[in-house]
Amino acid sequence: MTLSELKKLLMRFSMYKKKQFFIVVAFIFLGFVLFLDNGLQFNFKVLFLNYLIIIISITQIFSYKSLPFSLHGITNLFFLFFIGLAPALQYKKSIFFMGVNGELSTLEFLYGNCLFLGIIILYNISYHYLNRTRFKDKKLNINPFRLDDKNINNRVILSFSLLCTFIFFIYFDFNLEVVFHRKVFLNESQSFSKPVIAIINVFRGAPLILFLYYKLNGLKNAYLEIALIFLIVICNFPTGISRYRVAVTYLPLFLIYIKPFLKKYNFSSFFIICFLIVFPYLHHFRFNSNVLVNPVNFGMFLDLHFDSYQNSVNIIMNKIITYGDQLIGVLFFWIPRAIWESKPIGSSYLLANNLEYQGFSNVAIGFFAEGYINFGIIGIIIFVLLLALVNSWLDFKFWFRNNLKSYFIISYLLLIPFEFLILRGSLRSSFANLCGYLFFTYFFYILLKIKLLRR
């Protein structure tokens, strides 16, 4: 063994030891958070199952087989926060979201944890089984972002970005308060048409998609780059949109610009830090102007934004099954209710009606609960296997295939944050938004290929 090989081996061993150290520290810290008897109720079995979910999620996120960033990693990050940590803290504090009829007992928490533990195990085994031969002896594409189509016309990219931005601002009558302040938008949301807002939200994402085409094809124009970033920011100002739309907009930008994300574990670590620190700040500044004193606030896990677990368990405990009606509503979301009068209502409203809950009912129904709503327990298994199949195929294609089309790369970058939305729910709204973004991605791909619009 040469001296250089020995140095590389020692460096790898050092990195491995550091990773192991941080994982052990995370396990100890989260174990302390979960098992500290500082709430209104405590049950070791419930919390131990949550802890098992957290352990499996973290080991999958930071596995030696893990990719620099992937849909598989995002899925386990969702499991970590929404299925492992949030339900445990809500259980300890007796926090419930859907009225008296929606309160889960200790036994129901226990049942829900057992069910989700089975889902997580089935998903991860299926994913690795599907990739057991795909990843073997395959060389990782260390820079999947570089293409060489420099015939794209800069003016076309800028023109369509400006056009979509102009349409977006026209709809809101150039009211900057509505665009830049989420609280103002929510107060005036009753005056906006939901179907039109869904379309406008796709237009506000157009500058991002066009910017990604610009960057992927290696074009060099500092003024154009600054202009496109400016359009992205004013259309998607962080305090003017939901936290999850912040992720949809800015995560692809970070993945393009921050090269260390192409190394293992860096993206997952960054995502966890942003989730625990940046997202609480964004939510805080929507409604307050003072500085948030505590940057890491576990109290956010008691918030309505983390209701997906409880709503999912309530769906299953109340045996709400529509035998495919909800899935039909998801697939044909684009048909207006004015035309299709018997169009299925959203899953969240279905749950609210079943629980006789009169409060805010536009809540999150998790992806796996959507499987149950459609086909019962068999539906959950189908949705788990489908998720593992899609994630494994897309992850493999992005990281191990060469000569990828630019629209596939951009679609994958958009799917990274969108998968989080889809898993949290609701499926219909997140699927509709995703379809809008993917449609624009392919539309602009075709547009930029037209000879008359090229250089």
List low-confidence stretches.
none
Count of helical segments?
A: 18
- The structure class reads mainly alpha
Task: Tell me the strand percentage band.
Answer: under 5%
Query: Roughly how many Å apart are the termini?
Result: 53 Å
Q: Helical content, roughly?
A: 55-70%
Count of distinct strands: 0
Task: Tell me the overall shape.
Answer: globular
Largest sheet: none
Mean pLDDT: 83
Description:
The structure is a single chain. The protein has a domain at 1-28. The radius of gyration is 23 Å and the shape is globular. Helices cover 66% and strands 0% of the residues. By secondary structure, the protein is mainly α. The model has no long low-confidence stretch (mean pLDDT 83). It is built from 18 helices and no strands. The longest helix is centred in the C-terminal third of the chain and has 34 residues, at 367-400.
Tags for this entry?
mainly alpha, 18 helices, 0% strand
Outline the secondary-structure elements.
Blueprint: H1 3-35, H2 44-61, H3 71-93, H4 106-130, H5 154-171, H6 176-180, H7 182-187, H8 194-203, H9 206-216, H10 222-235, H11 243-257, H12 266-287, H13 308-317, H14 325-331, H15 347-355, H16 367-400, H17 406-424, H18 427-449
Helix pairs in contact: 1-2, 2-3, 2-4, 3-4, 3-17, 4-13, 4-16, 5-9, 5-10, 8-18, 9-10, 9-11, 9-18, 11-17, 13-16, 14-18, 16-17, 17-18
